[in-house]
TrEMBL record:
It comes from the Bacteria. It comes from Vagococcus salmoninarum. GO terms for cellular component: plasma membrane. The phosphoenolpyruvate-dependent sugar phosphotransferase system (sugar PTS), a major carbohydrate active transport system, catalyzes the phosphorylation of incoming sugar substrates concomitantly with their translocation across the cell membrane. The enzyme II CmtAB PTS system is involved in D-mannitol transport. Coiled coil: none annotated. InterPro entries: PTrfase/Anion_transptr, PTS_EIIA_type-2_dom, Sugar_PTS. GO terms for molecular function: kinase activity; protein-phosphocysteine-sugar phosphotransferase activity. CDD domains: PTS_IIA_fru. GO terms for biological process: phosphoenolpyruvate-dependent sugar phosphotransferase system. This is Mannitol-specific phosphotransferase enzyme IIA component.
């Protein structure tokens, strides 16, 4: 995936619940310059409207349509939660926070869907020991094969 860097990935994280997990992931989006801090609340609102769990142990929290002004740059962050966290009765071990300007979020979602539709890729992300190993999984299996 283009521009995915080690600083965009948190490994071996632990959260008591999905709100904490969304906060942790959203904070990394803001810290890395993709969003304003207020975007985190929009991510929580979006998950309350419709669960951001997409299957295969993956959730993709992102903001509501009204949150576009809070996005500074398109990008994703990945939070690995090896022990998992409950998202509305679903076990989530990979949380991918998304910030997309305009239609750029569609490209981000496409790559995420390609990589995470294969449970073997998700399991490899969960077991990865370094951010670089996760980046390699996206490079090898994403749609741009950089």
């Amino acid at each position: 995936m283009k521009n995915l860097q080690a600083r965009d990935i948190q490994i071996k994280q632990h959260f008591p619940d999905k709100i904490s997990a969304i906060h942790g992931t959203g904070h990394l989006l803001a810290e890395n310059g993709y969003t304003e801090l207020d975007y985190i609340e929009e991510m929580i609102k979006r998950d309350q409207l419709t669960s951001t769990y997409i299957g295969n142990l993956v959730a993709i929290p992102h903001g509501t349509d009204d949150s576009q002004p809070l996005i500074k740059a398109s990008g994703i962050v990945i939070t690995q939660v090896p022990e998992g966290v409950d998202f509305d009765g679903n076990l989530v071990k990979v949380i991918i926070g998304i910030a997309g300007i305009g239609e750029e979020h569609l490209e981000l979602l496409s790559t995420i869907a390609i990589v995470c539709s294969d449970l073997a890729n998700v399991e490899a992300i969960v077991q990865a020991e370094t951010p670089e190993a996760i980046i390699e999984i996206f490079k090898e299996n994403g749609d741009d094969h950089e």
